[in-house]
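anyone seen this seq b4? input:
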Amino acid sequence: MIDIDIEGIKVSQADNGLKIESCSDPFYIFGNITGYDFKSNHSFYNHYLNDPINKQVKVERNGIAVIASVEYFNEKFFVNISAILDTKLDNMALLYAYNAILQTISTTQWDENAIATSKIDNELGNFYNIVFVACRGEPEKVIPFDISLFYELKEITQEAISLSLKQIGYPKDITHFLNLKGITVDDMCNVASVIDSSIDIDKFKDILLDALDDSNVIQLIDGALCIDEDISRSRIRSIDKKAGVMNETIGLILARYIAGGDLKFSFNEYQNIDQLSNITSKTSDVILGLIIGCLSRDLI
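predicted toks r here
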C-alpha cells in the first residue's frame, strides 16, 4: 500500500484503484473528471488498473506527493496522475499545476520513446489520461505563487512517470522499434536463409540477437530509423535525395563492424532479393547489412 508523508493524507485500496483522502480539512481539487472542477472534497478515486501486475508508483518530497500509473493496451497509453500539494492554491495556480502535469506526461513519454503508433492518438494522447491536482484548500485571498513549486512538481511527476513506464518495459530494445516498422527477427532469418541455405538458422538467430544488443549496432540502426521517419514526415527539406545513399552506407558500416573482417557475401548482389520486399525500402539496405554482417561472422 502507498503511504503519503503529508500529514492527514491517507491512501487506501478501492477495488483495483486507489482512494486518496484527507482526514482533516477537505482537499481543494481540480481534475479532468466530472464533478472535480475546483471542488472541495475529502476524497477522490484514481489509478484503476486493468492489469493487476502493474503497480502505482509514488514519488514525494518537499510537500509534494505524486502518484502515477501507466498502462498500455489497445495500442494506447493510459496515464493516471494524482498530485497532492501540502499548500493552499487558488484556481489559477491549480490550473498552472494541472497544465504542468499534462506537459510533463507528453515530454516524459517522448523522452522514454513511449509514443503511440497512431498519429491521432499522439495528438489526442492526453484525452486518455486522468489527472487530479489536490491541495490543502483555497486561500481566502489571491496570493503570489512561487514558480519553483511548479518546476518541482514537473520534476517529481517526470520521475514518477518514468518509474511507471519502467514497470511496463520502457524504454524498449531496438527489436521493438524494428517491429513497429514491420521488420521482425523471423523476417531477417528468412532473408539470411535465402542468402545462404546451408546456415544453421538457430545459430544465426543467436548471432543476430547478440548483434542487436550491441550499443554501436543499435545506434546505427536507430539513426537509419530516424532518417526513415524524417523522410516519411517530410521533416527536412530534400533529405529524400540522399536517403538511399545514406542507408546503403549505414548498411555497409554495419556489415563490416559486425563481421569484424571481410564480408563473405557481396552486398550489392542481394539488394533486390524478393525476401527484402517485406522490409521498407528506406531501411532494407540497413537490414541487409545487419544480416550479411551476422552471416559473415557466422562463417569466419
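The chain is about 40% helix and 20% strand. The longest strand covers residues 76-88. kinda curious what u guys think
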